[in-house]
Amino acid sequence: MVVKEVAVTFNTLQTLPENPQPLRLDWISVAFFTVIHAVALLTPWFFSWNALGIAVVLHWLFGSIGVCLGYHRMLSHRSFQVPRWLEYAITILGALSLQGGPIFWVAGHRLHHAYTEDEDKDPYSARKGFWWSHMLWIFYPRPEFFNYEQYQRFAPDLARDPFYRWLNRYFLLLQIPVALLLYVLGGWSFVICGVFLRCVILWHTTWFINSVTHMWGYRTFDIKDNSCNLWWAAILTYGEGWHNNHHAYPHVAKCGWRWWEVDTTWWVINLLKIIGFAKNVNLPPVQVSRLES
Questions:
Q1: What are the pLDDT digits (tens) for 14-32?
Q2: Entry pTM
Q3: How far is the C-alpha of 65 from the C-alpha of 82, rounded, in Å?
Q4: Which residue(s) pair with 254 in the sheet?
Q5: Residue 123: exposed, middle, or buried by beta-carbon count in 10 A (0-12, 13-18, 19+)?
């Protein structure tokens, strides 16, 4: 049923406008991201090794588990399935990454795969340059990508779920209990490193997948887009940097295929499979699985 829903979603993509409206700078987004970056720059004055450790742990928890495993491989591509309670828990971690609600994130990513690098239909097309695909697409929002009433039709499987609708609307508020807990545990040092520094680093490491992995690296598969495998991007993103592999087989649960293409997010998925929580895990096709050896 889920596979059919995703197929219907891609059929719906044909309704995107051929002549998008002129772009306008969203000053609210500019102010929001500027403030978060500015506070993160205070880190040297509030530094402690414990606070840095908190930032690293939360970067992994919200980034690898929440975004890479949850938003990306579980929800966007449905490359595996877990019990509903676990799916919700993982998605909450994705929402805590401060990269948008699940319906917004999934809809945009499905558009990216349906129209990879198309300058009008891919929300973060790399053909429009590094800075556009990295972050400017957020500052010049188009309604078909940022207006809920328009983008929700590209993720109908999520938009029907009341929990996902709620989380999509109120994800920003989840930072408040996180910040309060960190303040209780370690004061402003924990808040600045665990919220602001963590957000900034996680944003840019995620955005590197949109930008640099469509510009540099090696290509295992000769496909129509310019996606590449880039080792240092894979390290920073827990395996997402093996992007050519992913674009060649987007519904496969693992991105790193060769033994040296380290994919720590896949390690977690495989662990969930071993203990019986992950079902219907999509693996590489038999004819190309020899790359793993």
A1: 555 565 567 899 999 999 9
A2: 0.91
A3: 13
A4: none
A5: buried
